[in-house]
Design a protein that fits this description.
The chain is an all-alpha fold. The protein contains 20 helices and no strands. It has helices at 17-64, 71-83, 91-123, 130-139, 145-158, 162-185, 189-214, 227-261, 264-288, 292-301, 303-340, 346-363, 369-375, 383-404, 406-414, 417-432, 436-465, 473-491, 493-496, 498-503. It is globular and about 75 Å long. The protein starts with 16 loop residues before the first helix and ends in a 6-residue tail after the last helix.
């Protein structure tokens, strides 16, 4: 194997983590904005019903990505630990073993998915024209290709080139915008939209292969195919996989429930509300993900060195996520109206998004802790909390959906978190050797102070300007809240050492 730093390779120096966070947020934000901006045009061109069918197919395919049992996480984890000086398999051996496993998973799930796609499109996909149903089902098979190729992106991240991986994702977003625009202008219908989204999904994985080749990060040999390496990876990944799979099943269960209980148009409406919610959730992921390899590397050396970095990650992610959730929850009535217009039941969509965002304020407490337990070598720590959430969510989804529609599904996702989050926090703290008092002092108190003061000032402003009957009243309040957050953060910087916490994150990826 040729690794970074050996003769003939690209320089081994990787990016600083704050730069990786910036690019990660940029990539994720571009994807989010593209999805939000394109959705109204897609609805006008192909209709909520037809697009809802494609969304269900995409959601089920995303479930099947977990059939690789999380070997991608193992590739990134052990690759990063190797860069930190820990002995273990070479990156080429990790990648080769991961590819074999992913290929086997893809071969197993493909026939099952194809059968589902034809059944769903043929029986519940009546919004799609008859002549397009079979092509759409066959086209959706391409959604499984990332399952086969995703180990390449994991290897790139494990080698310390997360910024390159994020740039590849930005290219995919650009391709989605261009492809969807072409499909819309040529009136290519749902098949054209599906092709554009599928191509955009494949491009980052394909560019990861090119990036690995150009940097000569890996070079395969027959000896790289190792049963012992695969066994090591699966020993780590199946526990991390369990947490991630159950979390994905819970989050995506709403789309499936709506697809079974409601109409395909309802799926699109719920997906619109869920995109607002998932935007903030992705913000947390984009903030935390760049630190996964760094935490794996630091935990591999000394847990004590990792604790200050971890506490800073928790503070920044919880603060940014809370501010974004509150802003969107306040502004939702006006934002949804401006976004989707009068052809969609915007009052229902905005209410569903507000319910989801309020639930996320509780849920985001544990989100950064899941990758932290993986990095500490304790994957699967949160599995019982995730199981409880899934059981409670699915258990109340169908009755609530029957009575309250997509708002009921949003309630089913949010209400169980009152019980789930304290359990999640307890499980993670016991493994990471973090005292609850430290978390309350260094993380919870600063965030509550900033967000609480900002909400109080926003409520006061809302009462004062309500009498003027301003247009876009809720959007003005949301922007006022955002301004209050900036002022409160600056005012409380010295009290809570916020700037010092952020500077602690400027470490090597």
């Amino acid at each position: 194997m040729i690794t970074p730093g050996q003769r003939g390779t690209a320089p081994a120096k990787t990016s600083r983590a704050l730069g990786g966070v910036s690019l990660s947020v940029l990539a994720g934000s571009a994807s989010l904005v593209a999805g939000i901006v394109l959705l109204p045009f897609i609805l006008r061109e192909v209709g909520a019903g037809s697009y809802g069918v494609w969304l269900v197919l995409s959601t089920v395919a995303s479930y099947l990505y977990y059939s690789d049992i999380g070997v991608g996480a193992a590739i990134s984890h052990y690759g990063a630990r190797a860069r930190g000086g820990r002995s273990g398999p070479a990156l080429s051996s990790l990648l080769a073993s991961g590819l074999i496993w992913s290929a086997g998973a893809c071969l197993i799930v493909s026939p099952l998915y194809l059968a589902f796609a034809f059944w769903y499109v043929g029986t519940l996909g009546g919004s799609v024209a008859v002549e397009d149903q079979a092509p759409l089902a066959l086209l959706s098979m391409g959604l499984l290709v990332p399952l086969l190729l995703r180990p390449f992106g994991s290897a790139l991240v494990g080698a310390g080139f997360l910024t390159i991986d994020r740039r590849n994702q930005v290219v995919g977003v650009i391709a989605r915008v261009i492809g969807t625009s072409i499909a819309l202008t040529t009136e290519a219908g749902i098949l054209g939209i599906a092709i554009a989204e599928l191509v955009a999904l494949l491009i980052p994985s394909l560019l990861s292969i090119v990036s690995l080749y150009l940097r000569r990060i890996v070079k395969f040999k027959r000896a790289d195919l190792s049963i012992s390496t695969l066994r090591l990876m699966l020993g780590f990944s199946y526990r991390s996989f369990g947490v991630n799979l159950i979390g994905a099943l819970t989050l995506q269960s709403g789309t499936v429930v709506v697809g079974l209980v409601g109409s395909s148009a309802d799926v699109t409406y719920y997906n619109a509300a869920f995109r607002i919610y998932s935007g903030v959730r992705q913000l947390l992921t984009w903030t935390v993900d760049p630190f996964r390899p760094a935490l794996s590397r630091i935990f591999g050396k000394d847990n004590a060195d990792a604790t200050p970095v971890l506490m800073s990650i928790l503070l920044v992610s919880l603060g940014a996520g809370s501010a974004a959730s509150c802003f969107l929850a306040i502004s939702a009535p006006d934002l949804v109206e401006l976004w989707l217009g009068g052809t969609v039941p915007t009052d229902v969509v905005s209410l569903a998004s507000q319910v989801l965002l309020i639930g996320l304020l509780i849920n985001m407490i544990h989100i950064p802790l899941a990758p932290a337990t993986d990095a500490a070598g304790k994957p699967g720590t949160l599995i019982w909390g995730q199981m409880l959430w899934l059981v409670l969510c699915v258990g109340i989804s169908f009755p609530l959906a029957a009575h309250f529609g997509i708002v009921g599904v949003a309630l089913a996702l949010s209400l169980p978190l009152v019980l789930v989050e304290p359990l999640m926090l307890f499980l993670a703290m016991s493994v990471l050797d973090i005292r609850m008092s430290s978390w309350l002092r260094l993380v919870a108190t600063p965030v509550l102070a900033i967000v609480g003061c900002s909400l109080a000032l926003t409520a006061l402003v809302g009462v004062l300007i309500e009498r003027f009957n301003l247009e876009y009243y809720w959007l003005i309040l949301g922007l006022g809240f955002g301004l209050c957050v900036l002022v409160a953060t600056a005012a409380l910087d010295r009290t809570y050492g916020l700037r010092k916490s952020i500077s602690a994150l400027n470490i090597d990826l």
